[in-house]
Amino acid sequence: MELLTVASALPLVLLTTAVLLVVPVERRAWGILGLAFSVMFAGTTCGVHLVELTAGRQLGSHGLVWPSAPYAVELLAWDFFLCISQIFVAVALDPMRAPPLLRRLVVITGALCLIGLVGAAVGKMRLQMIGVLGSAVFLPATAVGFARWFRNEGHARAA
Question: What are the tens digits of pLDDT across the range 3-61?
């Protein structure tokens, strides 16, 4: 699971970069902010999981358990940095070009992640599962939506 998390974080940075390349110039600052938070997300979660894979195993750590500092840093990545990244990406998208459903998916993903952070802040980890819904269900759906949009945009330009 640790390797899967590391492997999934890096493509998200590439996706955010691709979005940055297609947003209008007047919205590019929002895209840059989205990319910056995406990079912070990936760096943070990769750091947590690489530490768990290396030193954590040697120290007898048995994964991420709540409450713990590594888990809190992981929530910072998935429930804060990812949330903020998604919100900035949604703002960067041109409402006249981007499909409305795609923009809604991006906002929902970010909002669900933020709700997950509230769960950890108030000590109700069941609420944090809402954040998992955002990152495990809505984020992949958003990625598929972007793939379709990019493919359709490419066909439109070729035509």
Answer: 778 888 999 999 999 999 999 999 999 999 999 999 999 999 999 988 888 887 777 77
Task: Tell me the H-state helices in the chain.
Answer: 2-22, 28-51, 57-58, 69-75, 82-92, 100-121, 125-133, 139-158
> How far is residue 36's CA from residue 91's CA, in Å, rounded to a whole number?
14
At residue 133's C-alpha, the angle toward residues 123 and 102, to 5°, is 135
As to burial, measured by CB atoms within 10 angstroms (0-12 exposed, 13-18 middle, 19+ buried), residue 61 is middle
The pTM (predicted TM-score) of the whole model is: 0.89
* Residue 16 CA, distance from chain mean position: 9
Residue type, 143: A
